[in-house]
Amino acid sequence: MAASTLAEVAKLAGVSPATASRVLNGSARTPGAGIAERVRQAAESLGYVANAQAQALAKSSTGLIGLIVHDIADPYFSAIAQGVQSAARQERRMVLLATTDGTPAGEKEAAAAFAARRADAIVIAGSRSTRAEDSAANSELAAELERYCRNGGRLGVVGQGIIGLPDMAGYRTLPVPNEELARELAAALAATHEGPFVVVAGPDGLATSDERVRGFQDGLAGAGRPAAEVLHTAFSRNGGFDAGTQLAARLASRPTDRGEPPCIFAGNDVMAIGIVAALRKQGLSVPGDAAVAGFDDIEWLRDFRPELSTVGLPLDDIGRQVTLGALADPSAANPAASGITGTEITGTVRLRRSTEGA
Amino acid sequence: MAASTLAEVAKLAGVSPATASRVLNGSARTPGAGIAERVRQAAESLGYVANAQAQALAKSSTGLIGLIVHDIADPYFSAIAQGVQSAARQERRMVLLATTDGTPAGEKEAAAAFAARRADAIVIAGSRSTRAEDSAANSELAAELERYCRNGGRLGVVGQGIIGLPDMAGYRTLPVPNEELARELAAALAATHEGPFVVVAGPDGLATSDERVRGFQDGLAGAGRPAAEVLHTAFSRNGGFDAGTQLAARLASRPTDRGEPPCIFAGNDVMAIGIVAALRKQGLSVPGDAAVAGFDDIEWLRDFRPELSTVGLPLDDIGRQVTLGALADPSAANPAASGITGTEITGTVRLRRSTEGA
DNA sequence: TGACCGGTGGAAAGCGCATTCCCACTTGTT
DNA sequence: AACAAGTGGGAATGCGCTTTCCACCGGTCA
Fold first, then answer.
1. Residue of chain B nearest A304, judged by CA positions
2. Does 3.30.420.60 match the CATH number of domain B63-176+316-327?
3. B110-146, pLDDT tens digit by residue?
4. How far apart are CA B165 and CA B142, in angstroms?
5. Residues of A with CB below 8 A from B115's CB?
6. What is the C-alpha to C-alpha distance for residues A196 and A177, in angstroms, rounded to an integer?
7. By Cβ atoms counted within 10 A, which residue in A14, A267, B45, B319 is the most buried?
8. What does the mean pLDDT of chain B come to?
9. Distance CA A59 to C1' D19 in A
10. Which residues of chain A from 66 to 105 reach within 8 Å of chain B, CB to CB?
11. How far A35 CA lies from chain B's nearest CA (Å)?
12. What's residue B334's pLDDT?
């Protein structure tokens, strides 16, 4: 029933297991041609498939990369996952997937599972949470990862570093200029919008969201505009929809002649889509009754109408770089604090129809 | 540098490795409370993390589920992946991800990698290809999987069975009524559309696409309508876009009074979206100048405008069921040919704005 | 011709853990 | 009081593979 083993192959070929191992798997030493051929034939006839578990145990390297995302069905994460997958393939590794619903507790659990599996590297794509209620889980996560890295594991994190995790060998962060890009976006929007600004953000304490909000407010201030009102909701399409519904009600109860339509900045594209859906449902038009902008420029945004203004981020590349960075030689001077070098992630503000003047 | 081992923990606790193993991992025998506590403390203080590789080797079960998809960034696959992930979590397994670009050769490679890792089960979500050029790769894939199953591996496949793989223990197929649903859709569309029908399908030989086309033509015939012209292109958004561009050119060069607008059936939703985008780009409107329908009802379709008619498929559930089915007791009478029992996958035709009469 | 050497295959020691005996000991019987 | 049954812990074996280390063989140089 069980698969055949190296020993069986060796016996059939009339050689020692050592020799069989040398010919079947890449070894520094290559046995003679005649022997090699015999072994190969034996393996073939037995349908031998090397047991990667045993190999991993013997040479203590599993060829596994653990990927932690909030939700694999979210286009933001699936785009990053694609990049990770591609880098993994290039480095001849396989990716182990874990989804966490975004809680640090879930991330800790996933990290522990990856550590147990002795993954060569762990890549964390989800945003950090600085909420007070998550602080205990954050510490546990940091402790788990610190132990993992101390034992020789590699860690790559997208965006902000793990809270409470000190710089250490094998730990790399891939910075994403959320704040800066949000600032640029705000500046661009302020130049063409007279009306008030509203920000629809994720939960307070979600790092990525907070950074974008901060940058946006900063950009507004730089343009001499008052700070935008901030609505907190789920960092998802439905969160955007809920906020959009609220905003629609507000707009409807307002005399039409009272100034310019507002400009709504959503923390990410899926939220922006939710907002547009909600406004549309209430009979409001974008950009007529309200301008809307998002963030990320997820792939399928291009077919959405009205075309959404957003900030383009090379998601696929982010996934690739963070993976490659994590796998890179940990001895290279490159602490987490300074980020993964040679791979600056840059984004682009893209103004489109959804924020065009009415 | 290396992580601490069970033996170290045992020594620190002053017990044998056997005892340490018994308390730290679920065993039938539970050592005394005092001892257990000592061992647990020792493990804690050493930061012991069990080596899943070694455990897997010792008890020959890895807790791994291999998932093969064409493209994880495609919403169809990421929705299924989410279901697989959820089932895996429920069954306390982790999922190993492989993307293949849809070629049987890639699937074979992935299957081999999973077999080497001794995954408890392999789940294949991508569609089969019956193209002549893929036949060699298909045989290799079947051979690989047959060996895998013979060695005790479990296999779950979405949709059509693996070509050339006989029914065998541990191999289950989750049938998806593509043909039947496409027939229903055609019937529904035929009832409201006078104009000609056009089918934009995936590459000839892609099983899922072929089934849908066949069902659609059949439904048309049942309604007394002539067979639709079939355009073959890539089974993706861009494939749809290309076909849409062609169709748009054709529509434009046609006198406006020449009969009813055509009704275009796309093999899946992302293709439909591509088609709509292409038509729109050429200044044509949907459903005014052409009706468009898709298949799958992927999640983010609801925010797309015009709302697309399609066939709803419980993708998340498909992922769950195929995984659970693969993991289920292989001795239960349930050959691949008869599908995974107790889990009939049903879809629903959903007519929406994109196919409403002009 | 004898000492030295690169090269080749085998023996054996793990890698970290689960598990099957096996033994010493504590309880419960008549 | 003697023995059976039951219980808790340890020693040893093996999972399948990699990797020193060793023995050996033909060949080279002095």
1. B304
2. no
3. 999 999 999 999 999 988 999 999 999 999 999 999 9
4. 5
5. 3, 49
6. 25
7. A267
8. 91
9. 9
10. 67, 71-73, 75, 78-79, 81-82, 85, 94-99
11. 24
12. 57
Give the tens place of pLDDT for each residue, B310-327. 999 999 999 999 999 999
CB-nearest partner of A97 from B49, B75, B97: B97
In the CATH scheme, what is the code of domain A178-312+347-355? Answer: 3.40.50.2300
Sheet arrangement for strand A229-232? A229-232, A197-201, A263-266, A291-293
C-alpha span between B31 and B272 (Å, rounded): 62
Give the pLDDT of residue B164: 93
Q: CA of A49, closest CA in chain B: separation in Å?
A: 6
For A28, the token pair is 């520094």
Identical fold between A63-176+316-327 and A178-312+347-355: yes
Domains of chain A: which residue ranges?
Answer: 6-50, 63-176+316-327, 178-312+347-355
CB-closest option in B49, B82, B237 to A73: B82
- Interface contact A2, partner B, CB < 8 A: yes
Mutation target to probe the A interface, by most A beta carbons within 10 A, among B53, B120, B281 is: B53
Residue B348: strand pairing partners: B312
Q: Do B57 and A52 touch (CB under 8 A)?
A: no
Q: Is the dihedral of CA A38, A41, A45, A46 positive or negative?
A: positive
Confidence of residue B4 (pLDDT cuts 50, 70, 90): confident
Residue A12: CB atoms within 10 A of its CB come to 18
Reduce the DSSP state of residue A87 to 3 states and report it. helix
